[in-house]
Amino acid sequence: SAAAWLNPLFRIGYKRRLEEDDMYKVLPEDGSERLGEELQSLWDHEVQKAAKDLRPPKLAKVLIKCYWKPYAVLGIFTLIEEVIKVIQPVFLGKLIQYFEKYDPDNMDALYEAFGYAAGVCLSTLILAVTHHLYFFHVQRTGMKMRVAMCHMIYKKALCLSSAAMGKTTTGQIVNLLSNDVNKFDEVTIFLHFLWVGPLQAAAVLGLLWVEIGPSCLAGMAVLVILMPTQTMFGRLFSKFRSKTAALTDNRIRTMNEVVSGIRIIKMYAWEKPFSALVNEVRRKEISKIMSSSYLRGLNMASFFAASKIIVFITFTVYVLLGNTISASRVFVTVSLYSAVRLTVTLFFPSAVEKLSETRISVRRIKTFLLLDEIVKSNHGFLQEEKQEPSVEIQDLICYWDKVNVQLLSPVPPSHFPQSSLLSSILGELPHDKGVLKVKGQLTYASQQPWVFPGTIRSNILFGKELHPQKYEKVLRACALKRDMELLPDGDLTLIGDRGATLSGGQKARVNLARAVYQDADIYLLDDPLSAVDAEVGRHLFEQCICGILKNKPRILVTHQLQYLQAANQILVLKEVTHALPFEESRSEGTIGVGLYVKYLKAGANILVLIGVVLLQFLAQAAYILQDWWLAYWAGEQEKLNVNGTVTVQNGVNVTEELSLDLYLGIYAGLTGATLIFGFARSLLMFNVLVKAAQSLHNRMFNSILRTPVRFFDINPIGRVLNRFSKDIGQLDAALPWTFVDFIQIFLQIIGVVAVAASVIPWILIPLVPLVIVFLFLRRYFLQTSRDVKRLESTTRSPVFSHLSSSLQGLWTIRAFRAEERFQNTFDTYQDLHSESWFLFLVTSRWFAVRLDGMCAVFVTITAFGCLLLRDQVEAGSVGLALSYAVTLMGMFQWGVRQSAEVENMMTSVERVVEYTELESEAPWETQKRPPPEWPSQGLITFDRVSFSYSSDGPVVLKDMKAMFRPKEKVGIVGRTGAGKSSLVSALFRLAEPEGRIYIDGVLTSEIGLHDLRQKMSIIPQDPVLFTGTMRKNLDPFSQHTDEDLWNALQEVQLKSVVEELPNKMETVLAESGSNFSVGQRQLVCLARAVLRKNRILIIDEATANVDPRTDELIQKTIRDKFRECTVLTIAHRLNTIIDSDRILVLDAGQIHAYDEPHTLLQNHDGIFFKMVQQTGRQEAVALLQSAKQAYNSRSRPSTTNGGVGADGNLVIFETAL
User: Where does the record place the ABC transporter domain (predicted)?
Assistant: First the structure.
């Protein structure tokens, strides 16, 4: 029942958009867990056996063992199909013979001819059915293999050891899941042709021998020569592919960093070196893609030309051997060749090529599956010992990748991330010597808070069931009660990708709540207080760490050692940007002609495009004429044979013969033309399309670099990267090929219909309803198919995002023993994807069966039409029309499928084009360049500045007036959301502020962004290092000497650390500098600022999460190195800014107070005084003391103008303030 059960689905799909609930449930035998475990057990078995036999384990062997039986059965379908393909031309030949020997009175011959015609039609029908049954089943097998592999890869990822994580990157693992496993889907389709191909070739050879004798060997020889050339193409192609893949990985990694660090790149004005970096990689990648596209083009052209060359050579040899040609011979030969040609030149080499590709992928997956796993230590209690849970450590030495760090006390020095102590307790860090005993169930709250996509409640429960009282208690202890009330859906609010909905502090508290809720024996808390402000920190410490948990052993790593007695933590949370994660827009509707024009025009100008169109038509015309000439020749020959004209010349009887030179010459000429036009059109098309991909990528990249930061707040990184990986990948590889293929096939189909119509003009009448039915079917199908395709891609992304978020929270997942649960979630996502993939397979088969059915109708009409009009047609024309009509099978549905593919892929173009047209920020350079040594003093003036991140967003700074004098050190404080970071954003023009900001009298909004941003140094909130050498990180423009760089490093006390790296400055850092601790990264940022020697330095919340030593170091460097500079510090810990020259207190975007610290502290109702009081008694006394001391030690200048003679209006400000 040609998949009739799908009809209701299509009906729904035609009426409205399909949603996930419309999909059929996955069959139990296709379930991810079941398939994965089955393969996993075989693999484990193989690994053990291999270890015994001292050989490397073979993954391929395991795969074959698991899947060969059901797959082998499918070979029968292939066999039937290929047998029919060989028999059909024989029927065709008999039918044409009837026309050659046409005798109106011979009724027996007519009935026989009707029988043959029926044979031709039946074989087309049977072909239609078996072909699709076969395809459906093999693709399903492929799907099973892929799903099982993914399950295993994910399972493995969850138990990687830290050393292994160093050998692989998140990108690489995602790549295994996105690209490598897809090879299984492809390889299963072609494998059977490895044995069917040679068999079929032998059968055809036999039939041809009977038909035209030894001449057939010439044609077969060409086929045999073509095969290795195609295989060679395939080889070369995969060589290019692997080179391209390495470059693509590289480009996407760089893009990942650019997008994640875009804020910093913008603030440093580093767009140029990064764009140079990406463009360089992209250039190499495009040149490889161009080469592989030309290969593809040659391959496709040779595929079209192959049949022509084969037939040409066969008949040239046949005629030269003195035989005369006849229509039935010509067309049986042509049909037989075309039957075998596909298998031999396409399927067989494809099978070889896919097999080699799959072997590479299997090897890559195997390498991954053999990486080191973490040693599972069991921290449970034994039944007998009911003693206290404890952690015991003596002389522990641990290695991260064998860098020796001794750890004797739980209060390590600055350059040693304390987290390592916790990691070793968690068992993430293998220890070399020493004792580490852990008794009891562990739980862990990481320093970089980790949340996974889902509701807040699911993040806290983390797989435990909900006990309302306990849950409430935990929420209260973790100070989440109020936050939940403010969020739209309370604790059922969805957290976006990477926790986009929550602020840093909220994430940290969710992280803590998760740990507390787990009810374990030992709590490892890695600086959970660092991201929250003073009040909350105090609350957490008292209510949670010393409250709910008071009877449990807990290890708290924190940087505020000096306040621990006072249980106290002074930090201010950064602002909350309210960005709700919105759904990836699934673009709907069809794609306009305008888009195709845009796409093609990106690749070439109008004249070239017109040339391309002409070439296409010329090539197709030559293609048909070549076949027509053979038919014409056979017809002329026929006339001679019938009339048998004998002329008398010079008294000698001469039988008239056709001039061989003329006929053969024209035939050769046409063949040559077909070849030349065919190759030219292919290569030209590819050239245009790859150029289009190149120019679109460049435009998109430039547009992304120039768009305001706001864009990146709204769009999750994944979505932006998707444009650069998936969509550009489509434009590079898949789209050009599909596009060219579609155009060639479309022209072929038109050719077939034209030929049939020229023989039997009447055929156009039944053709009209067929075309109407076809158009209806296509629209009907495409609507559903597009939705299924869309569902397929939207159900695919959770699989990836689950993988990457699991990799980010690996430690947390393991500490909570939640691997099982995450594995199950992964399986559920996989099953959801399998549902849509299965639908995709079935719907495409549903459509293809119906299309092939229509082709069978067309063949039937043609065949019986010829018999009904037997008086008016010639044998040659019948042969031409029928042999062409038969080729429609398969080709027609493939063409339609390709047209749908092109349309689907054009959505990638649409998405890329959408990103090439983003709004851009102000120009990097303007006509108005500031003087070269500007700013020489560092006077910053805010004149009625208002600021909001987007035109419709809330105003975060309101009508602000302030002046920062040269060389002044100003601390900026305020509660969460007071607008501290916004002040920086306004200064850097990350969004355009209203009002005026002057620096040394230059209006900042008039100069180019680069001119402005390069002149201010910033130490950002989250220090970012980029992958690349240490030198590139400090000085991407290569403007400084080595000496300068070493000096800068020495000043921030990193010299020794860098000298210990294997290649010193040239050491390539791990993915985004993860081999440095947060404090060290901060120091690298400070070194960048030291190198820049700017007059203005801004420190944004840079002191969160840093231990006191680093902190002191940063403060000291700032006092020494930046004595001559204006320094603005956005502070959290008051002790760092209590001795500033002045303190600016912000409240709700307005200036609450702005004066010297000591003066501010006299006002007991002020916000600042209250903030000092909140730090606890001891600390408050110390703060008051240092403020007073600083106040007294200061030399007071005359307060008129801070010693700056500038425009008068500044004086007015002074008094206004």
Answer: 369-600, 940-1173
Please give the structure tokens belonging to residue 1038: 């290569």
Contact (Cβ atoms closer than 8 angstroms) between residue 616 and residue 688: no
The label of the residue with tokens 């189909």 reads: 749
For residue 852, the tally of other CB atoms under 10 A from its CB is: 23
For residues 1061 and 1030, give the distance between their C-alpha atoms in angstroms, rounded to a whole number.
Answer: 10
CA angle 953–492–796, rounded 5-degree value: 85
Question: Which amino acid is located at 809 in the chain?
Answer: G
The C-alpha angle with vertex 160 and arms to 154 and 165, in degrees rounded to 5, equals 105
Task: Provide the pLDDT for residue 423.
Answer: 58
* Beta partners for residue 523, in sequence order: 443, 554
pTM of the predicted structure, to 2 decimals: 0.70
Which region among 85-89, 449-453, 902-906 has the lowest average model confidence (pLDDT)?
A: 449-453
**147: Cβ contacts below 8 Å, ≥ 6 apart:** 30, 32, 35, 36, 830, 834
Dig out the tokens for 155 from the structure: 């399972």
How far apart CA 117 and CA 861 sit, in angstroms, is 10
Dihedral angle over CA of 955, 956, 962, 965, nearest 10: -140
- pLDDT digits over 617-654, tens only? 899 999 889 888 988 888 888 788 776 655 555 656 55
Decide if pLDDT at 1204 tops 70: no
Q: pLDDT grade, residue 1208 (50/70/90)?
A: very low
How many angstroms separate the CA atoms of 3 and 15, rounded?
A: 20
Higher pLDDT, 548 or 145: 145
The pLDDT tens digits of the residues spanning 1038-1064 come to: 778 888 888 888 888 788 878 877 777
pLDDT of residue 564: 45
Residue 409 has pLDDT above 60, yes or no: no
Calculate the alpha carbon distances from 1115 to 836, 1086, 1138 in Å.
Answer: 57, 11, 12
Give the CA diameter of the chain: 139
pLDDT given for residue 688 in this prediction? 92
* 955-992 CB burial, b ≥16 within 10 A, e <16: ebbeebbbbbbbbbbbbbbbbbbbbbbbbbbbbbbbbe
* DSSP codes, 207-254: HHHHHHGGGHHHHHHHHHHHHHHHHHHHHHHHHHHHHHHHHHHHHHHH
Residues forming a β-bridge with 655: 646
Q: Count H helices, E strands: the chain?
A: 43, 20
Percent of the chain with pLDDT over 90: 5
The predicted structure's pLDDT at residue 565 = 42
Residue 503: which region, alpha, beta or left (left: phi > 0; alpha: psi -120 to 50)? Answer: beta
Query: Which pLDDT band holds residue 585 (cuts at 50, 70, 90)?
Result: very low
Q: With beta carbons less than 8 A apart as the criterion, state whether 95 and 862 touch.
A: no
Q: Which of 207, 256, 214, 220 is nearest to 86 (CA)?
A: 207
Give pLDDT tens digits for 102-121: 777 888 888 898 999 999 89
Residue 475 three-state SS: helix
- How far apart CA 1167 and CA 925 sit, in angstroms, is 41
Q: Is the pLDDT of residue 400 over 60?
A: no
User: Contact, 236 vs 297, CB < 8 A?
Assistant: no
The CB density around residue 1099, as the number of other CB atoms within 10 Å, is 29
C-alpha span between 349 and 238 (Å, rounded)? 13
Residue 395 DSSP SS3: strand
3 state SS for 988-1038:
HCCCCCEEEEEECCEEHHHCCHHHHHCCEEEECCCCCCCCCEHHHHHCCCC
CA atoms lying within 13 Å on the CB side of residue 7: 5
Cis status, amide bond into 935, omega within 30 of 0: yes
